[in-house]
Design a protein that fits this description.
The chain is mainly alpha-helical and about 140 residues long. It has 2 domains: about 1-65, Ankyrin repeat-containing domain (Serine Threonine Protein Phosphatase 5, Tetratricopeptide repeat, Alpha Horseshoe), CATH 1.25.40; about 70-135, Alpha Horseshoe (Serine Threonine Protein Phosphatase 5, Tetratricopeptide repeat). It has 8 helices and 2 strands; from the N terminus they run ααββαααααα. A hairpin with a 6-residue loop joins strand 1 (about 30-35) and strand 2 (about 40-45). Helix 5 (about 75-85) runs antiparallel to helix 6 (about 85-95) and helix 7 (about 110-115) packs antiparallel against helix 8 (about 120-130). It is elongated, with a radius of gyration of 15 Å. The N and C termini lie far apart (about 50 Å). About 35% of the residues are buried.
Amino acid sequence: MHTVDMLVAAASTGNERKAEKCLRAGVDVNAFVVLWPPSGLTNALMAAVLVGDMRMVSFLIDRGARVNVSVKDGRTPLAIAIEQNNIAMFNLLLRERADIHAVTVSGYSILDIAYAKARMQMIQILKDAGARWRKHP
C-alpha cells in the first residue's frame, strides 16, 4: 500500500520512481502529512522545495501539485525558496505562476519575507513583477 507519507519521503529524497508508484496507486499529489513531533503539516511539493530538488518539484507540478499550496503558518513554496536563498527554485516557481501576493498568517507578504532575509535579487524581481509590501517599506 502506498501512502502520503511514502510520497513525501520519495519527494524529499528525489525518488521519482517511488513517487510515481505512489501517484499511480492513487495517492493525492496535494495531500498533507502531519510531521512528528507535531510541528505542522507538509506535502510532497513543500518537501521537495525544502530540500531544493528542482527536478522533483517539476515532476510534482507536472502531475498536478498546486504551486500555491500553503502550510499552517501560511508559507508557500515560494516563501520557502526565498528563506533558503534558492534563486533557481524561486525562478522555477515564478515560471509556474507562484502567487507573488501570498500573505502568511502573521501578515507578511512574499516581498516582506525577501526583505527580512535580505534577498536583494529576489526583491527586485518581485518588485518588477508587481509584488507589494505589507510590513516593510
